[in-house]
Write the structure tokens for this entry.
Amino acid sequence: MKINKTAKNNLITYLMVTGAFLLVEILSLTGNLTYHFGGLLVPICVYVIAAVSLNLVVGISGELSLGHAGFMCIGAYAGAFFSKLTDGALPDIWRFILALIVGALVAGIFGMLISIPVLRLKGDYLAIVTLAFGEIIKNVLNVIYIGKDSRGFHFSLKGTMALGLEEDGMVIVNGPQGISRIPGGSSLVAGFILILITLFIVLNIINSRTGRAIMAIRDNRIAAESVGINVSKYKMLAFSISAALAGVAGSLYAHNIAIFSATKFDYNMSILILVFVVLGGIGNIRGSVIAAVILYALPEMLRGLSDYRMLIYAVLLIAIMLFNQAPAAINFRTKIKAKLSMKKNERGSE
Amino acid sequence: MLEIKNLSISFGGIKAVDNLNMKIEKGALYGLIGPNGAGKTTAFNMITGIYKPDEGSIVLDGKNITGKHTAEINRAGIARTFQNIRLFNNMTVLDNVKTGLHNAYTYGTLSGIFKTPAYRKAEKSMNEDALKLLQVFKMEDRAELKAGSLSYGDQRKLEIARAMATGPKLLLLDEPAAGMNPNETNELMDTIAFVRKEFDMTILLIEHDMKLVNGICEKLTVLNFGQVLMQGETKEVLKNPEVIKAYLGEDDV
């Protein structure tokens, strides 16, 4: 009974994503998609992946993390770095796939490192540490210069001149200007597939032994230990998987634009992703997907209204919050639900 | 089964438990009683590794488990419930019990992600085992409810079911009847007796309800201000004037 219910719920999520993808594809093929909206599609996918992965930490593991953009930043740099090195040496599709994997691995390793303080901290303190981590990553990557020539890699914190590259040398990471002329690879199809993979990983973890252990720790740490769960292991696992998925999102982002710099991944981005998670419903994966799509696309769609744009955006945020949390709205929703199921039962009994 | 020797712990100069010695035989139903603040729960917390004792040793079936981690001690065979109920409130009743089966059926995270045959097999057995346990506690019809939404008595029972799911040799119950009405307490006594018989379980419990203690415990240890006041057969211990004094207070008049 229960298994059917969760399986059905997950299926709805997959179908919803697929449906949205097909709709956009059809619009695009029939030429009904504006150029502006077309440019939003991959970033929407990036934010959906980021929101779903953050929900694994915030909703399932119950830890407040404000450094998610930091992991995306690492994934973006690692993926773009890899792509620039192997451009031409590998077929484009394989280079892109490997760049995504590299982004995931490097971000995942950083996630594992950051999870060490995570094991010791709680609540506000953890939020501060993750916030600081995101800023540190951004600022460090902002001053790094890496170049490559026939003698190998060159590294500096001063500037491109200090790298002392030979004539054939190539600057890969250019300090505050970030990485430029990144070979492409991202597309809506790639984003769609990655969203499905992310959902597949996160939803299946939630419904497994691992997910139960993570949620048990969230609900009551001492009780989780008392039934023999290794708390450190599962907290670390949740954080690392979340970071790795954020790395994929970052890598996807980097391959969508020719140039990016670390300053893009500041705490505003972390907060934005957290807003998607909170408004979509903490622990509600499908909610994260919907919230990320609507809340990312909306301000862009409202550009025509110029100054009123952010006003409408803010009102919408409040409306969603009320719809999700206000007792009156919850009552209203349960009533509607009860009515619907009654109708269904009547039909069933006839 | 369980042998506790010279167990002591202090908190800031106060000896919460002082030189506790206890021996629990296999299959026994042993009671730990004493007035509030006597150190009963502290003793439990040392046995289950939540506190590290300052001195003394705890040996389970010949295996020294003193100072081990809580999770390790559970895997060694001690499961417990808590005085202030600690359930996984946002998870279903069934998932609470399945979490108790965490170490009974193991498969890796990757198996879980890819839903391998190992995953399917383990989950199927877990569901069956968990439902069987819930049947023992007559809760199978509430399997899909959130644990936090259960009635108080059911929450206490679910905690025992979850502890039993870990397949312990020794079950520690911290005030299982706290906050229960007489009917619920009677039902609980039956359940404890049934669990003991059905699973051949050794049980150590803390309790204030003298009816329950008198009804099911065979042996008692009485703690007072961290020290053992008396140990022995239930009937003898409860008749002892020292014990009565510790519980009811001295007559000043």
Summary: Strands of chain A lie at 145-149, 152-156, 170-174. Residues 38-349 of chain A form a domain with the ABC transporter involved in vitamin B12 uptake, BtuC fold (CATH 1.10.3470).
